[in-house]
């Protein structure tokens, strides 16, 4: 665990971020990549670093299914989404001793690009939308780069949302850690 921040504090911050997925948002502008990145940064135990963001993701997926439609929870690209979260948590572990701005900028950029590449490959591989050829894979990536009126694109939104949410989570956790250090025993 980074410094003295508790597993409970990290879990609550990540779960709170996960619940923001229920709010209206731009396409792919969610905290899920930041949850995985911060989980990797803050978890002292390898296992808990992976469990916290994946459990928060599962809870928010189930809530999305209950509130909106089960297709949010059970879809053909879910293994790709969860797999990329595992990889991003591993990336977060590499940033455990880095300065927060490095985690946000470099870790967040790597996380956003990795998520884009993995999940768009998952759409191509798991679906029938694109032919299963190199050209079809290229079409899947190009479609993900398309800009939506007033809401960015999947790659840009993934990177920027990871910067925003990871910066927010890291600030909250740093404040909690600072407060905990100043509380008399």
Number of strands: 0
Run of helices and strands:
HHHHHHH
Structural class per helix/strand content? mainly alpha
Oligomerization = single chain
What summary fits the major beta sheet? none
Given the C-alpha coordinates, what overall shape results? Answer: globular
Structurally, the number of domains stands at 1
Distance between the termini: 20 Å
Mean pLDDT: 87
- Rounded to the nearest angstrom, the radius of gyration is 17 Å
Figure out the total of helices.
Answer: 7
Helix content: over 70%
Given as residue ranges, the uncertain stretches (5+ residues, pLDDT < 50) are: none
Determine the strand fraction and express it as a percent band.
under 5%
Structure description:
- The mean pLDDT is 87.
- This protein has 185 residues and is mostly helical.
- The two termini are 20 Å apart.
- 71% of the residues lie in helices and 0% in strands.
- The chain is built from seven helices and no strands.
- The protein is globular and about 60 Å long.
- It has one domain (7-182).
């Amino acid at each position: 665990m980074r410094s003295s921040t508790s597993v409970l504090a990290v879990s609550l911050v990540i779960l709170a971020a996960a619940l923001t997925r229920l709010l209206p948002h731009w396409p792919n502008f969610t905290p899920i990549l930041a949850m995985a990145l911060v989980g990797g940064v803050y978890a002292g135990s390898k296992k808990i670093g992976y469990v916290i963001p994946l459990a928060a993701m599962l809870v928010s997926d189930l809530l999305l299914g209950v509130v909106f439609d089960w297709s949010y929870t059970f879809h053909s690209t879910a293994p790709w989404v969860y797999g990329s979260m595992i990889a991003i948590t591993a990336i977060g572990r590499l940033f455990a001793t880095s300065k927060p701005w490095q985690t946000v900028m470099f870790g967040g950029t790597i996380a956003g690009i990795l998520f884009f590449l993995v999940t768009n490959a998952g759409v191509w591989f798991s679906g029938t939308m694109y032919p299963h050829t190199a050209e079809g894979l290229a079409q899947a990536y190009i479609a993900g780069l398309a800009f939506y009126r007033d809401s960015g694109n999947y790659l840009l939104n993934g990177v920027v949302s990871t910067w925003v949410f990871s910066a927010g989570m890291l600030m909250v956790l740093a404040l909690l850690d600072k407060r905990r250090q100043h509380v008399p025993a």
